[in-house]
Amino acid sequence: MKCRKCGQKAAINMRHHKLALCGEHYQEWFVEQTARTIRRYKMFRRDERVLVAVSGGKDSLGLWDVLLRLGYQADGLYIDLGIATRFDYSGQSFEKVEQFVETLWPDAQLHVLDVNALYGATIPEAARISNRGRGKPCSVCGLVKRHEMNRIAHEMGYDVLATGHNLDDEVAVLFSNVLHWQTGYLARQAPVLPASHPGLARKVKPFCRFYERETAAYALLRGIDYIYEECPHAVGSKTIAYKELLAQLEAQSPGAKLQFYLSFLRAKEEGLFAAVQEREEGRLHACERCGQPTSAPGLCAFCRLWDRVAEVKRPPVPTTPL
Ligand code: AMP
Ligand code: FES
Ligand code: ZN
Ligand code: ZN
Predict the structure, then answer these.
(1) Which is the closest atom of ligand 2 to the Cα of 232?
(2) Domains in the chain, ordered, with CATH?
(3) Which of 44, 72, 158, 187 is the most exposed place for a label (fewest CB within 10 A)?
(4) Helix ranges (DSSP H) in the chain
(5) Could you identify the atom of ligand 2 that is nearest to the CA of residue 141?
């Protein structure tokens, strides 16, 4: 297989695009495609400040790298979740982020947020105490990450929050949402989520049209070292099972995932879910404490979570002997 551009040996063949490229031309193509996605969905402009949520994985580090190569004002945010089940997942992830900055972009700005230091419990501990998510910390983890990304972007004056979600992630979520007809989630699933509330950053996913193997190939060719392991709590998750199913579909019909996702976006543009979107937005109001949008009365789920943790972990009041 030869590179379509220069005729040298191809490093990757993308059957769904009928395109094979060598390492150098693949990187060029990948950066150009990201720029096109940013333009196509009007994600952000040159003069806007972007906060990239980096997990230490190939997608988010690759995304930060591409945005910096394209000359955007992009800073990183790493959230230390305190996950050390079976191995030090959070510690190793952070090492990859630090190494990325040191070796590739020493002048880049990285913000680090330590959940345990800030709120008094790691994610697995908070999940145990609150009993949310049936013994798995993933739902508490998602809740805290979403809230903290929004908060930091808002407090530090970023216009946009970018995450590394790739096509495989988006398609697995879409599949799950369709399987359960989660209309509220379907209404909100998009490459760009406008700020749902004054002061909140817009959310964007510039890698949403790349297959996972494409983002992995970019990281590899670019020399980005990343954490290969999945979060230990993700093992056996529904999302992984859906990804396996969808991989079978893709093997039989290359491009099926991309088509599924793009047809969904087209249907949304035509107004499918518009009524749901309106209904959902009408339900949101500001949390009485933190101000972030919530559909729950009074306090949002994030504020209630940490209230519960504080209640359980509060040191006992010393009793004076009578
Ligand atoms: P995940 O939910 O783990 O599939 O991650 C999806 C995206 O969320 C990643 O591509 C990152 O942009 C972001 N993300 C996940 N974990 C973290 C973290 N610990 N710190 C900052 N961003 C994260
Ligand atoms: Fe959050 Fe696994 S529980 S990344
Ligand atoms: Zn080439
Ligand atoms: Zn709140």
Answers:
(1) 2
(2) 43-283 (3.40.50.620)
(3) 187
(4) 23-40, 58-69, 89-104, 115-119, 123-130, 138-155, 167-179, 183-188, 212-222, 238-252, 256-269, 274-283, 301-313
(5) 1
